[in-house]
Amino acid sequence: MARILVADDELSMREFLKILLTKEGHEVICAADGEEAFTLFQAHPCDLLVSDIKMSKVDGLELLRKVKEIRPNMAVVMITAYGSPEDAIAAMKAGAYDYLTKPFKLKEIKSVIRNALSKPIGKDMGEAPAGIFNNLVSHSPKMLKIFNLIKQVGATKTNVLISGESGTGKELVARAIHQISPRNGKPFVTINCSAIPDNLMESELFGYVKGAFTGAVTNKKGLFETAHGGTVFLDEIGDLSPLIQVKLLRVIQEREFIPVGETETISVDVRLISATNKDLEQEIIQGRFREDFFYRLNVVHIHLPPLRERREDIPLLAQYFLEKYSRELGKDIRSISSYALDVLMKYNFPGNVRELENIIERSVALENSNIVLPDSLVLSEYKKEVRKTELPSFHLTSAGLDLEKELSELEKEFLQQALQLSNGVIKKAAELLNLSFRSMRWKIKKYGLKDFKE
């Protein structure tokens, strides 16, 4: 499923495209002119723009150029009237993926849009097709296989176990499974198994009746009853005590439970999706996790790889989060500098996708320019590595050295780093080195460092 923005000043064409694309499984938002379309584009992250060329206020070509300034790699399909090939050529030169000539056939538009959504994102994003699937963002082969598995398992009632390190997106996968399942109109209830103490877990899961214990002044529904007809997501399932594991095993087997203080059973229809960052098979060997409980949970297993094993996703995710937080924080930050991206690509992300999201959010909040620079990335561990590995190291031996030459090399290195950190802006680079603008320009000329901005 993709989010598609349709811009056309003909109501009948907007309605036609919305019906067609919705039937294809996409979310569609519509605009009556280019100005409205650009406003919607800024407010809603889209995977594809389908736009008429001839529109009032802002025409399709101008809309295309404005969109490409912010999202250079976004797929855009243009619609042109019969007999205007010049407009079509202009659209392709401006970066459109393809164009459709009115009147077009259903088979033709379906094919063009399908191909546009699966097109390569661009050299800076890698060569695999990009995917945005129910808030999961990836174009790595490993994750695209998981997307397909989610689609397969979504229509079933099967219990699913999701494993992976913290921050890899286990809850997002669980929500995606729920969203594409027949239960998507029913509750999705998250239970953090590590956050609820054992003495409260049973009453939280199954509820209680008035007078069941001190403080039980009213009846209270448990989380399982609240989720009836929907999905229960058991996060950090590996932290459950053996006693609660036994009680949950009975619920899974019998589809019923007894609230605390009650004598009558309550039947419940829920789907169980569990997640863990532990090796549950090792936990079984250590006697901390019940084997029968494990096999009930682990009917279908989805393992999410850490971000360091799918580095090709870092540019795509970084840009996705950049656009998200630029909108939320009211910033006009359009891209990430190549040097900042290089810093991110070299980082191991122990906190995975969640850590990358936090880094980009902080960067957007701290950045004063319209591009994310390395000095706004809060990566203390990485910066220590940079200082250790990237700055030149000098050692005096009995053979001696050419001090002037070595100092010149060091000065040149610092100049280059300052220019990279400032994205080539001489004034900012000079400030980083505590130099005057004139002195900085003279040194750039001295070392032949060209093509930078004043």
Q: Can you walk through the features of this model?
A:
There is one protein chain. With 454 residues, the chain is of the alpha/beta class. The protein has three domains: 3-119, 3-Layer(aba) Sandwich (Rossmann fold), CATH 3.40.50.2300; 141-303, Rossmann fold, CATH 3.40.50.300; 391-454, Homeodomain-like (Arc Repressor Mutant, subunit A), CATH 1.10.10. It is built from 19 helices and 18 strands. It has helices at 11-23, 34-43, 60-70, 85-93, 106-117, 141-154, 170-179, 198-206, 223-226, 242-254, 280-285, 291-297, 314-328, 338-346, 352-366, 380-389, 403-421, 426-432, 437-446, and strands spanning 3-7, 27-31, 48-52, 75-80, 98-101, 131-133, 136-138, 160-163, 188-192, 207-208, 220-221, 231-235, 256-257, 266-267, 271-276, 300-303, 335-336, 371-372. A five-stranded parallel beta sheet has the order 2-1-3-4-5, sandwiched between helices. Strands 9-12-15-8-16 form a five-stranded parallel beta sheet. Strands 6-7 form a two-stranded antiparallel ribbon. β6 and β7 (136-138) form a beta hairpin. α2 runs parallel beside α3 (60-70), α6 (141-154) crosses α7 (170-179) and α18 crosses α19. The relative contact order is 0.07.
